[in-house]
Each structure stands twice: as C-alpha cells, then as structure tokens.
Write a structure and sequence with these properties.
The chain is mainly α and 259 residues long. Helices cover 77% and strands 5% of the residues. The protein has six helices and four strands; from the N terminus they run ααααββαββα.
C-alpha cells in the first residue's frame, strides 16, 4: 500500500489562507450584528428584573391589605366588647366591678385608636407603593417596546445572514480537516491573540499586512519561495507572499459567490 504523500509547505499555506478567508468572512457577518445580540440579552435581563420587582411590590401590597383587614376586624371586635362591657356596667354589684369594666372599655378604645393609626400608616405605604409600581410598569413598558424593536432588527439581520453563515461554518470545518493539528492549533491561537482575527497575512509593500514594520528583503524572498512557514517577529502572524494571497482570494471569491 502506497504511503500517503505529505503536503508541501505551499499546500499547507494555501489551505491555511483559505481557512483564514472563510473565517474572516464569518467574522464580518458577526460584525454586521454588532452588539445587537448582547443588547437583546441585556434588555431581557432588565425586563426579568423589573417583573420580579413588580411581583414583590404586588405581594407587599397584598400583605398591607391583609393587615388593614385584620385591624378593621380588631376594631369591630373591640366595639362589640365595649358594648358588652357597657351593658355589664348596668348590672354591677359594687364600684370595684364597675371600675374593672371601665378599664376594659378604655383598653378597647386604645386598641381601636392604635388600629386606626396603623390603618392610616398602611394606607400611606400603599399610596407610595402604588406610585412606585406605576413607575416600574412604565419603565417595563418602555423596555418591552425597546426589546421588541431590537429583536425585530436582529431577526432581520439573522434572516439575511444565517444561511450564509451556516454554509461558511460548514466550509470552515471541512477546511480544518485538511490542515494538520499542530498548524491548526497555532492558527487558532494566533487568531485569538490578534484584534482583527487575522492569523495569516500577505506581504504588502514590504511589510506584513496591516503592519508598518518592514520585513528584510532576504526574509521576503524566503516567504515567496514557500519552502517553510515564516511568522512575523512583531505580531506572530504567519506570512505569505502577495501572489499566493491573490490566487487564493480569487478561488475563494468564486466559492463565496456560489453560497
């Protein structure tokens, strides 16, 4: 059985640059979305927090209503007792019993006064909480409108780009299979360390693409010879010559136009 032929350095460079062109196109699609997905998530989190706040205020209002009902019941019970004590005073046998019933009546009067004071305080709290809940609900309405607008905006972009992105992601995975693991790891590491995600760049006007550091003529010749993989000493990016870059760009443009 014939041994599988090891790809040349040039073939490796072409495969890497093809992958870079695909991944860069995916990056551009993601850039079109910008911060929209993050904005949508943030708005959803804010709305969830506001809904939780409304629920808490509602529970607090219910609790205050319950306390008012309890105090009203206490007042009614106190009035019944006061009536009872007043009736009993008519049939007392001595002053001690009369004074005792008078004290009980006075105690119930104090209970009524305290309960009425509590009810007033609870009603003030209810008014304040109603103002608060109205403010939260107004804010919630604005946030829901904003979220609806942002989701519509995001959905429009997703519909326009989702098909192409999915196709490109599949292409990216397929091209990764053509590259040896060591090189693929290096490519991924470089991509995460550079701002624009460009791990492999062509020489442009004597310097690495996007850089102002001139590459020595001897190194440029070695890059053009495509006999070994050479990285930029300043950025760590893999370097290729302009001709190879141009050839692969034309090839990938045909691929992109077919998607």
């Amino acid at each position: 059985m014939a041994k599988k032929k090891e790809p040349t350095v040039e073939q490796k460079l072409r495969a890497l640059y093809d992958l870079q062109l695909i991944d860069s196109r995916i990056d551009k699609i993601k850039d079109v979305r910008g911060e929209l997905p993050l904005e949508v998530r943030d708005l959803e989190d804010e709305i969830e927090g506001l809904n939780t706040r409304v629920e808490k205020i509602d529970l607090s209002l219910k609790d205050l209503d319950d306390q008012i009902s309890e105090k009203k019941n206490l007042i009614e019970e106190a009035k019944v007792l006061m009536k009872k004590y007043t009736e009993q005073q008519k049939n007392v046998r001595n002053n001690r019993e009369f004074d005792s019933l008078t004290k009980e009546t006075e105690y119930q009067e104090l209970e009524i006064q305290l309960a009425e004071k509590n009810i007033k305080e609870f009603k003030v709290q209810i008014e304040l909480k109603n103002v608060s809940i109205d403010e939260v609900k107004e804010k919630l309405s604005d946030k829901n409108d904003h979220l609806k607008h942002k989701k519509k905006e995001l959905d429009t972009i997703l519909k326009e780009t989702e098909k192409e992105e999915n196709m490109l992601l599949k292409k990216s995975e397929n091209y990764k299979k053509l590259i040896e693991e060591r090189l693929l790891f290096a490519y991924g590491k470089i991509r995460t360390n550079v701002k624009n995600g460009l791990a492999i760049v062509p020489i442009e006007r004597g310097a690495a693409g996007g850089s102002f550091f001139t590459i020595p003529p001897q190194v440029q010749m070695e890059i053009a010879a495509r006999k070994k993989i050479i990285t930029d000493e300043h950025s760590g990016r893999i370097l290729i010559d302009e001709v190879l870059a141009s050839e692969q760009k034309k090839k990938m443009e045909k691929l992109f136009s077919s998607i």
